[in-house]
Design brief:
By secondary structure, the protein is mainly α. About 55% of the residues lie in helices and about 0% in strands. Strand 1 and strand 2 (about 65) form a beta hairpin. The longest helix is centred in the first third of the chain and has 29 residues, at about 155-185. About 40% of the residues are buried. One of its GO terms (cellular component) is nucleus. It holds the Pfam family Fungal_trans.
């Protein structure tokens, strides 16, 4: 890499390098002040030292170049001249540093104090774009103010309660990992046939009806052959089946699993087994349509089962490259030799690949990896699976088939890609008129989909609640994120009132969902997915929560005039009263209850989110009664932590009872002091109450999109990281 290339972000801060790996004397800059620490952190040529607090540079080979280091190729050319130049550079650097003015320098004790925080940020840094839900949470920085002040007051009881809950969650998750490792050795082990039937049917009626991955009749035939033993079962099919069962198990109720033990651990083991197969050398089927299907199932299972869902964005890049390598991005009409059946399978699969890539971009707050200029694959035909590959003509759009929702998603894909690029791009900073234009196009596309669904013939099959909810989530989350930055400005500028209203109506619609459908449908499918899943099925709802909560709080405090939603933008598909008509605060309280269910049953134990959501509700109630908000927030934080502790202790006891002899575990805190947990369920209560942990670093938005710090100067972006900063030892790299 050419180190002479200037950094587009820090061009005025990064010194130009000569061939020696050092900077010319005239461009040596003083050590940055505290306000510049974030800028220097993102500069790859700058490292903070404890001892001399100088810049460390790298030579063209990429290795650190210390003051006495000389590149080998330079030594071979002119060793004497190089040594003279290096000595001269040393003298000039020392002279410049010694002549710095006091106000531009930083004392050594101050740098040593900042170094652990900077080192911790290096390990946990995430550059958040505008689509990340944490950007919206910055509206409640006063809550973090209150909690941070309590930690600074050395409230050992409050601190100990939080860290006990944190360590309990790690113990429980470690139990799942250990069981997954033991179950992975049981190759081909499945639940009972009755439980498998329930899960397979649940997957086919839910996710497969929106995100097309499999050809259901072919899959069902292989599934039946496996149980009858009439045909040999391939390893690839077993991997697909395991992932389908894992997804279906999160869709159905726990009572439908017929007492299947260790289902959460089985899901983890099955994901790991499929990932190993996908990355194993010598597997020719990896670069095939079957391999792409398995890859899509792996990513979807990670999201639904909350297993490393934060890493899905990285994996979608590999999925996209594999799909393009197979030519899925080109329409099959360019390849006359491909049969009609395979052509439609490829179109369906490309639609799912694009959707996974785009949604993971919104979850991670990073630019999308796809562009509509880079593919010409048309949407799939409106055909049922039984008619696929025959001479049958596609059904009209008002006839529901197993591909109808994939077609709706593909038709509004271009505008959603544009919105994702505008939100998370480093260079683009759209004007309000551009945001209004994009919002109008996106709303028109969503309304067009709604009209098609409403026009579907009542004489044929009707959409399920799960299909409507998932389509609503996959499309309207873009509208919420698009208007969110300007809705936050509406508090001081009424010109952005429209964005404020759009965000409120869209957020309530995402949280409340569609009205209850007629009896006979599985109305709990989507609710179960929200309860157990993460990523796509958690982050948009959290952004919607803070949007509605901030609206209620501002109206209650008299900062804004009331902006009650009149007609939700999504146009309800039924005259049945919607939950959103019950009141915004009722919707928030219901979601807090759902967050508590995550603690009881979910694979991802999210303590901090539950506590912060409870504090938001408490702050709203305090504002309504004109009582002190800080006291209400602190009381809610303690109560929610105590509730978390009770739930996690009960959950650990149930795990311990499910094993005849639970093995003792070791959990490391921030100080790397192990806390041994014995076989008895009460041993969990012996965890040290003075240990350290990572604090609230997950809610660090100090490194969010740089333009946000300029747009919202009244928000303290560094507050959400101070919880861990004030706890000794919180800079440990372990989680």
């Amino acid at each position: 890499m050419d180190m002479t290339t200037s950094n587009p972000i820090h061009d005025d801060r990064v010194p130009t390098h000569n061939g020696l790996g050092h900077s010319p004397p005239a461009q040596v800059e003083p050590i940055p002040s505290e306000g510049d620490m974030y800028g220097d952190f993102w500069d790859p040529l700058f490292v903070i030292h404890n001892s001399n607090s100088t810049r460390k540079h790298r030579d063209p080979a990429g290795t650190p170049a210390s003051p006495g280091h000389v590149p080998r190729h330079t030594q071979a050319q002119a060793p004497t001249e190089v040594q003279v130049l290096i000595q001269r550079v040393r003298q000039l650097e020392q002279k410049v540093f010694s002549q710095q003015e006091p106000e531009n320098s930083v004392s050594a004790p101050h740098i040593q104090q900042r170094h652990p925080q900077a080192r911790r940020t290096v390990c946990q840094a995430n550059l958040l774009g505008r689509s990340h839900w944490l950007v919206g949470f910055a509206q409640f920085d006063t809550i973090v103010h209150t909690l941070n002040n309590r930690l600074q007051d050395d409230d050992m009881e409050f601190r100990a309660l939080f860290f006990k809950c944190q360590r309990l969650s790690r113990v429980i998750q470690q139990q799942y990992s250990l069981r997954a490792s033991s179950l992975q050795a049981l190759d081909g082990s499945l639940p009972s046939q009755e439980a498998c039937n329930v899960c397979v049917n649940a997957y086919c009626r839910s996710f497969e009806s929106v995100l097309r991955i499999l050809h259901v009749p072919t899959f069902q035939q292989e599934y039946n052959d496996m149980w009858t033993g009439s045909q040999p079962t391939s390893k690839l099919f077993m991997l697909k089946l395991q992932l389908v069962i894992a997804i279906g198990a999160r869709v159905v109720n726990q009572s439908d699993m017929l007492g299947t033990p260790d289902m959460a651990s089985r899901c983890v083991a099955w994901i790991q087994e499929a990932q190993q197969w996908l990355h194993a050398p010598g597997e020719s089927l990896q670069a095939s349509v079957d391999g792409i299907q398995l890859y899509c199932l792996v990513l979807l299972t990670q999201i639904v089962c909350a297993v490393d869902a934060s890493l899905v964005y990285v994996s979608t890049g590999a999925l996209l490259q594999k799909a393009q390598q197979l030519g899925l991005h080109r329409d099959p009409s360019h390849f006359p030799a491909i049969p009609v059946f395979q052509a439609e399978i490829r179109r369906r699969l490309w639609c799912t690949v694009c959707e996974l890539v785009l949604q993971s971009s919104m979850d991670s707050g990073t630019p999308p990896l796809i562009s509509c200029d880079e593919f010409d694959c048309r949407p799939p035909a409106n055909l049922t699976d039984t008619n696929l590959g025959t001479t049958s003509e596609p059904e009209p759009s008002n006839i529901l088939t197993q591909t109808s929702f994939s077609i709706l998603l593909m038709r509004c894909l271009p505008i959603r890609v544009q919105v994702a690029k505008v939100l998370n791009s480093v260079q683009l900073d759209p004007s309000y008129s551009e945001v209004l234009r994009l919002g109008e196009e996106l709303t028109a596309a969503c309304h067009h989909n709604t009209q098609i669904i409403k026009s579907m013939s009542p004489d044929h099959e009707q959409p399920t609640l799960f299909q409507l909810e998932l389509l609503n989530l996959l499309t309207y989350r873009f509208l919420l994120c698009l208007h969110q930055p300007f809705a936050m400005k509406a508090r001081k500028n009424l010109a952005y009132y429209f964005s404020r209203r759009v965000c409120l109506e869209t957020a309530i619609q995402i949280l409340a969902g569609h009205p209850t459908t007629p009896s006979g449908q599985n109305v709990n499918d989507y609710l179960n997915v929200k309860r157990y899943s993460s990523g796509l099925f958690r982050d948009p709802h959290l952004l919607a929560f803070v949007t509605v909560g901030h609206e209620i709080l501002c109206v209650t405090e008299g900062d804004w005039f009331s902006c009650q939603p009149v007609s939700p933008l999504t146009n309800n598909l039924s005259p049945t009263p919607n939950k959103s008509q019950q009141g915004p605060r009722t919707v928030l309280e219901e979601y807090v209850g759902l967050s508590e269910c995550r603690l009881k049953d979910g694979a991802q134990i999210d303590i901090k989110t539950y506590v912060l959501l409870s504090c938001i509700i408490a702050q709203i109630k305090a504002a309504e009664t004109r009582s002190p908000q800080d006291d209400a927030v602190l009381s809610a934080a303690v109560d929610s932590l105590e509730r978390c502790h009770t739930i996690l202790v009960d959950r650990y006891k149930s795990l311990a009872q499910s094993r005849e002899s639970p093995q003792p575990l070791q959990v490391y805190g921030g100080s790397n002091v192990p806390c041994r947990l014995g076989k008895g369920p009460n041993d969990i209560l012996d965890i040290s109450e003075t240990g350290e942990g990572e604090g609230w670093s997950d809610f660090d938005v100090s490194q969010a999109e740089w333009s946000l710090q300029v747009e919202y100067p009244d928000l303290d972006w560094n507050l959400l990281n101070t919880w861990s900063a004030c706890v000794p030892g919180s800079d440990s790299e372990g989680s």
